[in-house]
Amino acid sequence: xxxxxxxxxxxxxxxxxxxxxxxxxxxxxxxxxxxxxxxxxxxxxxxxxxxxxxxxxxxxxxxxxxxxxxxxxxxxxxxxxxxxxxxxxxxxxxxxxxxxxxxxxxxxxxxxxxxxxxxxxxxxxxxxxxxxxxxxxxxxxxxxxxxxxxxxxxxxxxxxxxxxxxxxxx
Length: 170
Fold this sequence. Notes:
This protein is of the alpha+beta class. About 45% of the residues lie in helices and about 25% in strands. It has 7 helices and 8 strands, in the order αβαβαββαβαββαβα. Strands 6-7-5-8 form a 4-stranded antiparallel sheet, covered by helices on one side.
Protein backbone atom coordinates (compact mmCIF):
# COMPACT_ATOMS: atom_id res chain seq x y z
CA UNK A 1 0.00 0.00 0.00
CA UNK A 2 2.87 2.37 0.76
CA UNK A 3 4.20 2.06 -2.81
CA UNK A 4 0.75 2.84 -4.21
CA UNK A 5 0.40 5.90 -1.97
CA UNK A 6 3.85 7.15 -3.03
CA UNK A 7 2.92 6.68 -6.70
CA UNK A 8 -0.37 8.54 -6.17
CA UNK A 9 1.54 11.41 -4.50
CA UNK A 10 3.88 11.60 -7.47
CA UNK A 11 1.04 11.60 -10.01
CA UNK A 12 -1.41 13.99 -8.31
CA UNK A 13 0.30 17.12 -9.71
CA UNK A 14 0.34 15.71 -13.27
CA UNK A 15 4.07 16.33 -13.86
CA UNK A 16 5.58 16.13 -17.34
CA UNK A 17 8.47 14.06 -15.99
CA UNK A 18 8.13 11.25 -13.49
CA UNK A 19 11.20 9.58 -11.95
CA UNK A 20 10.49 6.25 -10.26
CA UNK A 21 12.96 4.15 -8.30
CA UNK A 22 11.87 0.51 -7.96
CA UNK A 23 8.18 1.43 -8.39
CA UNK A 24 6.95 -2.17 -8.12
CA UNK A 25 8.85 -3.01 -4.95
CA UNK A 26 6.61 -4.59 -2.31
CA UNK A 27 3.56 -4.80 -4.57
CA UNK A 28 1.47 -7.91 -5.04
CA UNK A 29 1.08 -9.29 -8.61
CA UNK A 30 -2.24 -7.54 -9.26
CA UNK A 31 -0.90 -4.17 -8.12
CA UNK A 32 2.20 -4.73 -10.27
CA UNK A 33 0.09 -5.32 -13.39
CA UNK A 34 -2.04 -2.25 -12.67
CA UNK A 35 1.03 -0.08 -12.08
CA UNK A 36 2.71 -1.28 -15.28
CA UNK A 37 -0.50 -0.54 -17.18
CA UNK A 38 -0.63 2.95 -15.61
CA UNK A 39 2.99 3.66 -16.54
CA UNK A 40 2.35 2.57 -20.15
CA UNK A 41 -0.80 4.72 -20.37
CA UNK A 42 1.06 7.70 -19.00
CA UNK A 43 3.82 7.26 -21.57
CA UNK A 44 1.23 7.00 -24.37
CA UNK A 45 -0.20 10.30 -23.14
CA UNK A 46 3.16 11.91 -23.94
CA UNK A 47 4.60 12.05 -20.44
CA UNK A 48 8.25 11.24 -19.77
CA UNK A 49 9.02 8.53 -17.26
CA UNK A 50 12.38 7.38 -15.93
CA UNK A 51 12.30 4.08 -14.08
CA UNK A 52 15.26 2.71 -12.16
CA UNK A 53 15.18 -0.99 -11.36
CA UNK A 54 17.41 -4.02 -11.13
CA UNK A 55 14.51 -6.32 -12.00
CA UNK A 56 14.94 -6.21 -15.75
CA UNK A 57 11.94 -8.32 -16.79
CA UNK A 58 9.72 -5.71 -15.11
CA UNK A 59 11.39 -2.95 -17.11
CA UNK A 60 10.85 -4.95 -20.31
CA UNK A 61 7.15 -5.22 -19.49
CA UNK A 62 6.90 -1.42 -19.14
CA UNK A 63 8.77 -0.25 -22.23
CA UNK A 64 10.96 -1.23 -25.13
CA UNK A 65 13.11 1.93 -24.83
CA UNK A 66 15.85 1.05 -22.41
CA UNK A 67 19.13 2.54 -21.28
CA UNK A 68 21.38 0.15 -19.38
CA UNK A 69 23.81 1.62 -16.86
CA UNK A 70 26.34 -0.48 -14.97
CA UNK A 71 29.00 1.04 -12.71
CA UNK A 72 28.63 4.42 -14.40
CA UNK A 73 28.99 3.04 -17.92
CA UNK A 74 25.96 3.16 -20.18
CA UNK A 75 25.02 1.39 -23.36
CA UNK A 76 23.20 3.30 -26.09
CA UNK A 77 19.45 3.71 -25.80
CA UNK A 78 17.81 0.92 -27.73
CA UNK A 79 15.07 -1.62 -27.61
CA UNK A 80 15.84 -4.77 -25.67
CA UNK A 81 15.92 -6.88 -28.85
CA UNK A 82 18.31 -4.41 -30.49
CA UNK A 83 20.65 -4.86 -27.53
CA UNK A 84 20.64 -8.57 -28.21
CA UNK A 85 21.58 -8.11 -31.85
CA UNK A 86 23.85 -5.05 -31.58
CA UNK A 87 27.01 -6.88 -30.61
CA UNK A 88 28.43 -9.32 -33.12
CA UNK A 89 30.86 -10.58 -30.50
CA UNK A 90 27.95 -11.77 -28.37
CA UNK A 91 27.09 -15.33 -29.36
CA UNK A 92 23.34 -15.63 -29.86
CA UNK A 93 21.81 -19.02 -28.99
CA UNK A 94 18.77 -20.36 -30.86
CA UNK A 95 16.84 -23.54 -30.00
CA UNK A 96 15.05 -25.06 -33.00
CA UNK A 97 12.68 -28.02 -32.73
CA UNK A 98 12.18 -29.49 -36.17
CA UNK A 99 10.99 -32.51 -38.10
CA UNK A 100 14.36 -33.20 -39.76
CA UNK A 101 17.08 -31.76 -37.55
CA UNK A 102 20.03 -33.33 -39.41
CA UNK A 103 19.02 -31.82 -42.76
CA UNK A 104 18.43 -28.48 -41.08
CA UNK A 105 21.85 -28.63 -39.39
CA UNK A 106 23.52 -29.36 -42.75
CA UNK A 107 21.84 -26.28 -44.18
CA UNK A 108 23.21 -24.11 -41.35
CA UNK A 109 26.72 -25.58 -41.54
CA UNK A 110 27.08 -24.16 -45.05
CA UNK A 111 27.00 -20.59 -43.64
CA UNK A 112 29.91 -18.72 -42.11
CA UNK A 113 28.01 -17.05 -39.25
CA UNK A 114 27.53 -20.30 -37.33
CA UNK A 115 29.66 -20.57 -34.17
CA UNK A 116 28.41 -23.95 -32.93
CA UNK A 117 25.65 -26.46 -33.31
CA UNK A 118 24.58 -29.31 -31.08
CA UNK A 119 21.79 -31.85 -31.19
CA UNK A 120 19.18 -32.37 -28.50
CA UNK A 121 16.13 -34.64 -28.51
CA UNK A 122 14.31 -33.63 -31.70
CA UNK A 123 16.01 -30.25 -31.78
CA UNK A 124 19.22 -28.40 -32.54
CA UNK A 125 20.83 -25.63 -30.54
CA UNK A 126 22.72 -23.14 -32.68
CA UNK A 127 25.06 -20.34 -31.70
CA UNK A 128 25.54 -17.57 -34.22
CA UNK A 129 27.53 -14.35 -34.34
CA UNK A 130 25.01 -12.66 -36.64
CA UNK A 131 21.45 -13.33 -35.43
CA UNK A 132 19.78 -11.09 -38.03
CA UNK A 133 21.41 -13.01 -40.88
CA UNK A 134 20.71 -16.33 -39.19
CA UNK A 135 17.00 -15.58 -38.60
CA UNK A 136 16.61 -14.40 -42.21
CA UNK A 137 18.08 -17.69 -43.45
CA UNK A 138 15.94 -19.69 -41.00
CA UNK A 139 12.82 -17.90 -42.24
CA UNK A 140 13.70 -18.69 -45.86
CA UNK A 141 14.36 -22.36 -44.99
CA UNK A 142 11.07 -22.62 -43.09
CA UNK A 143 9.14 -20.95 -45.92
CA UNK A 144 10.58 -23.32 -48.52
CA UNK A 145 9.60 -26.39 -46.53
CA UNK A 146 12.48 -28.31 -48.11
CA UNK A 147 13.99 -29.29 -44.74
CA UNK A 148 10.69 -30.39 -43.20
CA UNK A 149 8.51 -28.66 -40.66
CA UNK A 150 9.99 -26.38 -38.04
CA UNK A 151 7.89 -26.66 -34.89
CA UNK A 152 9.54 -24.25 -32.46
CA UNK A 153 12.15 -21.50 -32.45
CA UNK A 154 13.17 -19.95 -29.12
CA UNK A 155 16.18 -18.16 -27.74
CA UNK A 156 17.33 -17.74 -24.15
CA UNK A 157 19.19 -14.63 -25.35
CA UNK A 158 16.05 -12.74 -26.35
CA UNK A 159 15.54 -11.00 -23.04
CA UNK A 160 17.09 -8.01 -21.37
CA UNK A 161 18.45 -9.98 -18.41
CA UNK A 162 20.55 -12.23 -20.68
CA UNK A 163 21.92 -9.28 -22.62
CA UNK A 164 22.74 -7.35 -19.44
CA UNK A 165 24.55 -10.36 -17.96
CA UNK A 166 26.63 -10.63 -21.12
CA UNK A 167 27.47 -6.92 -21.15
CA UNK A 168 28.44 -6.91 -17.46
CA UNK A 169 30.79 -9.87 -17.99
CA UNK A 170 32.44 -8.28 -21.06
